[in-house]
Design goal:
With about 270 residues, the chain is of the alpha/beta class. About 50% of the residues lie in helices and about 20% in strands. Helix 1 packs across helix 7 (about 215-225) and helix 4 runs parallel beside helix 5. The structure holds NADP nicotinamide-adenine-dinucleotide phosphate (NAP).
Length: about 270
Amino acid sequence: MKLQDKVAVITGASMGIGEAIAKLFLQEGAKVVLCARDLPRTKAAEERIGGGANTLSVACDVSQRSQVDALVKTTLDKFGRIDIFVNNAGFGLNDAVADMDMAALRRMFDTNLFGVIDCMQAVIPVMRKQGGGDIVNISSVSGYISTPYMSGYAATKHAMNAIGKAARMELQRQNINVLTVCPGYIATDFVKNMEKGKHSERLGSSVKYSVGPEVVAVATLQGMLKRKREVVTPRFYSVFIRMYQALPSVVESQIRKALRPTAQVLAEAAKKQ
Ligand code: NAP
């Protein structure tokens, strides 16, 4: 058991990547707090992962600081400490820069970026008092490569990478490690749940390379135990990132060729699952 008696809080744990991380951490002996906005859906996930005395579901919208503070307090009241905090809650906005709805864009930043910073600010004092801890930020390959009609989402993830890596250097002396995880295309309901605007197109080819959320969970655990700064998962995406950094116009032309209507990409993904 790699996480025996550790207490882990996971945001956005009612499905997808968050649920897979909750399941693995519980199997590894951790006490796990699952949070998302929809409590019945979170409790259903808690049941699916085999929860009981070592789990707790909490309703929390990470874009609301008062709810984040309540999440931390509820966890401390129940389990007495927080060793691991996984910032996973997030969603996408699928539209063109020229047309995207500014209110939707601000909402996405409030969850994907400011919510993460609020969670970090709420949990860092707890970890400092305990003498250390691990903060895991679930970012994306979009934190390196910005694709058409996902610009705002990529902006939240680029910013998340910047915050996480600076925070890591600030907190290392206090024995708090900040790990940034950058998944590629993962087979969850993320695309279905995304806010879609007038111009909803996606990379069709990425469906072919999709893997299950449990792959991200294993990579997250391994990266966290090694106290790494970053994990790109699946690994082949790091080659893609390096290619983009070396030859951006070549990669961009491939990206443009791979664009398909989002509805078509969703249909292809449903066939694959
Ligand atoms: P998902 O299946 O849509 O799950 C998103 C989770 O976040 C749900 O539990 C949702 O529950 C929760 N959530 C959304 N807004 C929230 C808020 N304001 N406060 C608290 N919880 C909130 O998506 P996923 O694929 O698992 O994505 C999880 C994370 O991985 C996201 O940060 C995403 O950007 C990142 N990621 C995903 C992929 C991919 O291909 N799937 C790739 C790279 C990175 P409620 O709606 O009930 O709140």
